């Protein structure tokens, strides 16, 4: 009976030890198996288990690194989708998204709106005479000048030589003031002796005060009309 009791006790202790060891390994593995499911669904807020077991620690570290890389990759993809690769400005996709928000904001009659269309002149001539590298430099210079002038408003490049600036609180007086600023910036750029080429912009604008009733398409047409007139 003593031998049987000791054997049963040893079996119980051994079983308890095995249970604890297996649980220590299996539980983290179960959590790790949930991580790929969440990652495949685009959920990067996965719980990375912390374990003293060497192999599981390696797996946890690998999953953590993979999650970080996926986050950075998605961030880069989102930036590529909404940013112009040449200038870094927001692109046509971003502009279309802004237009949808603009239509919602039209119901708020306590705000003034302004839309400006800017066209870079003589880009084709620059490309034909000096090559596309020179044309790209001209586009980049124009983009930098426009974004520096309109720091409070989103700036979009919606075509090869066309830019759009949208302001949700741009009054007529503010637009007139900022137009004089950008023309002054263009003059300063062209007067700089270090500049190897001249920069010329045609600008059109349309405003919508809080007491007016105008659609976005009407504002676009007005801005385009005044831009082509310029």
Describe the structure.
With 230 residues, the protein is an alpha+beta fold. It has 7 helices and 4 strands. The chain has a 4-stranded antiparallel sheet, sandwiched between helices. Helix 4 packs antiparallel against helix 5. The longest helix is centred in the first third of the chain and has 39 residues. The radius of gyration is 31 Å and the shape is elongated. The model has no long low-confidence stretch (mean pLDDT 80).
Briefly summarize what is shown.
By secondary structure, this protein is α+β, with helices and mostly antiparallel strands. It has helices spanning 2-40, 54-82, 92-105, 123-130, 132-149, 172-191, 216-229, and strands spanning 113-120, 155-157, 162-167, 201-208. It is elongated.
Q: Topology as H/E string?
A: HHHEHHEEHEH
Enumerate the spans where pLDDT stays under 50 for 5 or more consecutive residues.
none
Q: Whole-Å distance between the termini? A: 108 Å
Radius of gyration: 31 Å
Q: How many DSSP E strands? A: 4
Number of helices: 7
Q: Percent of residues in helical segments?
A: 55-70%
Overall mean pLDDT: 80
The main β sheet shows up as: 4 strands, antiparallel
Strand content: 5-15%
Q: Give me the side-by-side strand order of the main sheet.
A: 2-3-1-4
| Derived structural class | alpha+beta
Shape: elongated
């Amino acid at each position: 009976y003593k031998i049987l009791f000791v054997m049963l006790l040893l079996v119980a202790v051994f079983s308890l030890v095995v249970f604890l060891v297996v649980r220590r390994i299996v539980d983290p593995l179960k959590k790790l198996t949930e991580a790929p499911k969440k990652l495949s669904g685009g959920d990067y807020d996965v719980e990375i288990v912390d374990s003293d077991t060497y192999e599981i620690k390696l797996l946890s570290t690998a999953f953590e690194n993979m999650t970080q890389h996926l986050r950075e990759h998605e961030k880069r993809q989102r930036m590529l989708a909404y940013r112009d690769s040449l200038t870094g400005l927001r692109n046509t996709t971003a502009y279309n998204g802004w237009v949808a928000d603009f239509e919602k904001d039209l119901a708020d009659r306590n705000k003034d709106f302004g839309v400006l269309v800017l066209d870079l002149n003589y880009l084709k001539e620059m490309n034909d005479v000096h090559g596309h590298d020179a044309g790209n430099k001209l586009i980049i210079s124009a983009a930098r000048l426009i974004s520096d002038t309109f720091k409070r408003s989103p700036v979009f490049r919606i075509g090869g030589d066309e830019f759009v600036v949208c302001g949700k609180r741009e009054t007529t007086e503010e637009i007139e003031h900022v137009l004089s600023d950008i023309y002054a910036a263009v003059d300063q750029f062209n007067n700089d002796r270090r500049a190897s080429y001249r920069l010329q912009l045609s600008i059109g604008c349309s405003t919508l005060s809080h007491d007016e009733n105008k659609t976005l398409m009407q504002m676009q047409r007005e801005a385009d009309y005044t831009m082509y007139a310029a």
